[in-house]
Specification:
It is a single chain. By secondary structure, this protein is an all-alpha fold. The protein has two domains: 27-130, no CATH class; 137-151 and 161-278, no CATH class. It has helices at 3-10, 40-55, 61-74, 122-128, 133-136, 139-148, 152-158, 162-176, 182-187, 189-204, 244-249, 257-278; strands at 89-92, 98-101. A two-stranded antiparallel sheet has the order 1-2. The longest helix has 22 residues, at 257-278. The model has no long low-confidence stretch (mean pLDDT 91).
């Protein structure tokens, strides 16, 4: 059986989301994106340096623990204080093209030994935890996002965004007047381009203030819920935008009616292209 299909078969919700292929993986539950500077370049450099440094650490409990403590001391400012950032997440795979656990038995230098018990959550949590997306997103949505993402960075940022993903496909389904499925994605590059563009909004959205992180706090304790978009300051009489849910989940703030209109135009353009594809 195809390895990907085999993993899907074992995963809750029928679609495996963690280590998808050599380029696509998610480290969100490890607090990967819970860092001060979330830019692709800074995050990649941090992971590459961490991976290189860990390769020189003796595989002994004290040395591994000390390494983790040193990493945390250097990265002690986090947008979400209650969300741990694991110091043992790094770059894995033949070409180091995706994120993963440096303590995993298959990681370089571990010689098949599982050191995950030395991490903050312990080995049991790492083996049995699955993020809410596994069970709270429709199977076809998960497969499409997995197919459309370009790399670990964009994939990990979007895949835990349950409300945002549902809002995206709700709009597309409305445009198509039918449910989007994997056949649509595989047959038409224009449609997958629309999904890719939307995924890109997670990092490039121009209406997210610099004080708002693009990271997602996806736990159920509601400590860091997304704030509603405040329209009253720009036009008290203007109704709530039809894209309000998407704007909220993207962390939007608008300083003028013109900014709001520009944001709505970006969405209109995106979803009109989906409608045109169907026609």
């Amino acid at each position: 059986m195809d390895p990907e299909k085999e993993m899907d078969k074992k995963a809750p919700g029928g679609v495996y989301l963690c280590q998808v292929n050599e380029n696509i993986s998610c480290g969100a539950c490890c607090g990967l994106y819970n860092v001060q500077d979330l830019s692709r370049e800074k995050l990649y450099d941090m992971l590459l340096r961490r991976t290189d440094d860990f390769s020189k650490v003796p595989r002994e409990a004290d040395a591994i623990t000390n390494f983790g403590e040193e990493v945390l001391c250097k990265n002690n400012k986090r947008p979400y204080d209650e969300f741990y950032h694991c110091p043992y997440i790094g770059l894995i795979g033949k070409e180091r093209m995706r994120t993963g656990c440096l303590l995993h038995p298959l990681a370089d230098g571990n010689n098949g030994v599982d050191y995950s018990g030395l991490g903050f959550y312990g080995s049991m949590t790492c083996h049995i935890y699955f993020c809410p997306s596994y069970t709270m997103l429709p199977e076809n949505y998960k497969r499409i996002i997995r197919e459309a993402a370009d790399d670990w960075y964009s994939y990990g940022l979007i895949i835990t965004e349950i409300v945002l993903i549902n809002a995206l496909f709700s709009e597309i389904d409305s445009c198509l007047q039918s449910k989007i499925d994997e056949t649509d994605i595989h047959m038409n590059q224009a449609l997958i381009g629309i999904i890719k563009e939307f995924i890109g909004f997670k990092t490039s959205w121009p209406f997210r203030p610099s004080s708002v992180t693009a990271a997602n706090y996806f736990f159920k304790d509601k400590l860091y819920e997304r704030k509603p978009v405040d329209y009253s300051g720009i036009n008290p009489d203007r109704p709530v935008s039809r894209y309000d849910l998407i704007f909220r989940e993207l962390g939007s703030s608008f300083n003028s009616v013109e900014e709001l209109r520009n944001a709505e135009s970006m969405m209109d353009d995106l979803f009109n292209r989906a409608r045109d594809w169907k026609i």
